[in-house]
Specification:
This protein is an alpha/beta fold. 38% of the residues lie in helices and 17% in strands. It has 7 helices and 7 strands, in the order βααβαβββαβαβαα. A 5-stranded parallel β-sheet has the order 5-2-1-6-7, with helices on both faces. A hairpin with a 2-residue loop joins strand 3 and strand 4. Helix 4 packs parallel to helix 5. The relative contact order is 0.17.
C-alpha cells in the first residue's frame, strides 16, 4: 500500500463538522498520515470514540500538528503540497465569513488546485475522495498539469 498523507483543516465555524467526519471515518483514516493545523490537530488528537464498549483515542500521537492557520499553518500545508508531500486536502472552510487570513486561505486552495491533489471543502466530497478505489491504487499517481512545467521552463527575456 502506498503512503497517503492527508491534510485536515477547518475554520472555527466548521470544526465540529470536521470532527464528526474524522470520527465517522476513523477506520479508514487510521492507516494514513494525518497533518492538521493548530487547534484542529489538537481536537482530532483528543477525539474519543466508543468501540466495543470502551473509549479509545485513535488519533492520539498520530496527527502531525502544524501552526494555527492564521499563524502560518495554512502556508505550511501549502508548502507541503508544492513539495509533493500531501496527497489529499480536506478543508472545511466557513464561506459565510471573511477570514482574517483570507489571503492564506486563497493561496492554500490555489495550490491544491494547481498541484492537482484530491481536495474537498465539504463532507460529501470528502467522503467520495476517501472511499475512492484510486486512493490506494499503486498504478495511480497524481499528474501535474503541464502549465507547471511550462512555467518552470518559461523564457525570462
Amino acid at each position: 500500500m502506498k503512503e497517503i498523507n492527508v491534510a485536515l483543516v477547518a475554520h472555527d465555524g466548521r470544526k465540529q463538522e470536521l470532527l464528526q467526519w474524522v470520527k465517522f471515518n476513523y477506520k479508514i483514516l487510521e492507516s494514513y498520515n494525518l497533518f492538521a493545523t493548530g487547534t484542529t490537530g489538537t481536537l482530532i488528537s483528543n477525539l474519543e470514540i466508543e468501540e466495543d464498549g470502551r473509549i479509545i483515542k485513535p488519533y492520539d500521537g498520530k496527527v502531525t500538528k502544524l501552526l494555527s492557520g492564521p499563524l502560518g499553518g495554512d502556508q505550511q500545508i501549502g508548502a507541503m503540497i508544492a513539495e509533493g508531500k500531501i496527497n489529499m486536502l480536506i478543508f472545511f472552510c466557513d464561506n459565510l465569513i471573511v477570514q482574517g487570513h483570507q489571503n492564506d486561505v486563497s493561496a492554500l486552495t490555489r495550490l491544491a488546485a494547481l498541484y492537482n491533489i484530491a481536495f474537498a471543502t465539504n463532507r460529501t466530497t470528502a467522503d467520495m475522495l476517501l472511499t475512492s478505489t484510486l486512493i490506494d491504487d499503486p498504478n495511480y499517481s497524481i499528474m501535474l498539469p503541464s502549465c507547471i512545467e511550462s512555467y518552470v521552463h518559461r523564457s525570462l527575456k
